[in-house]
Specification:
210 residues; alpha+beta; nine-stranded mixed β-sheet; Aminopeptidase; 9 strands
Length: 210
């Protein structure tokens, strides 16, 4: 399948200043921008910037950013699922994963995360995909936010809902290992029935195991 990418941008006003929410961003533009030192959720900032540039260069890879002047203060990534995860087992060309979303502490609570998701879904090509995200409580910044597991889960769910993602049941062992973990997904308008059925089979792979 051809991976179309159409750039969209939107300015949002926050109490901390105006941000430009934009993307998908090409690798060269990412390389030219500053990457905020507080973007540390997944790996050190310089390593994470390098990872985002690599993702942006992949045919299916998409990076949308929140930019304060010339500095990236938040981002969301879309890429094929990790080959070690069950979601890649169907080898579906039209299933991509919202792999990471991060906003620096200074801009949290300003709606930046929701705006990142909304702008990324403004691209009509997203209607060709099943977009999934897997939420694991051990990835959450409970310490930094002071929220408990359930409060954080509520915040995450609300944010994902802003991008049209909804909760989906699954028997995936990692997700099932804690009740706060969850699978969320958005099935694009142009996704065919065969792909939806394939996705359902990926969600319930242990159904017939006794």
């Amino acid at each position: 399948m051809e991976h179309r990418k159409t750039y969209n941008a939107k300015e949002i006003k926050t109490s901390k200043g105006s941000l430009i929410i934009e993307g998908p961003i090409p690798p060269q533009k990412l390389a030219d921008l500053e990457f905020h030192k507080d973007l540390v959720a997944f790996r050190p900032p310089e390593q994470q910037k390098k990872a985002l540039i690599e993702i942006a260069g992949l045919p299916e890879g998409r990076i949308n950013i929140a930019r304060y002047r010339d500095t990236i203060v938040g981002y969301v990534t879309y890429v094929y699922p990790d080959p070690l995860e069950r979601w890649s087992e169907g080898k579906m060309k039209n299933l991509i994963e919202l792999g990471a979303i991060e906003v620096i502490p200074e801009f949290r609570g300003t709606g930046t995360g929701k705006s990142l998701l909304k702008v990324s879904m403004m691209d009509d090509a997203m209607e060709d995909y099943i977009i999934i995200t897997t939420e694991y409580y051990w990835h959450w910044d409970l310490k930094g936010t002071g929220l408990n597991v359930w409060e954080y889960r509520k915040v995450m769910e609300k944010m994902m809902n802003a991008g049209g993602l909804e909760w989906y049941a699954t028997d995936d062992p990692e997700i099932s290992s804690h009740p706060a973990n969850c699978l969320m997904a958005k099935i694009g308008k142009r996704v065919d029935l065969d792909s939806i059925q394939k996705f359902d089979r990926l969600r319930f792979m242990n159904r017939f195991m006794y």
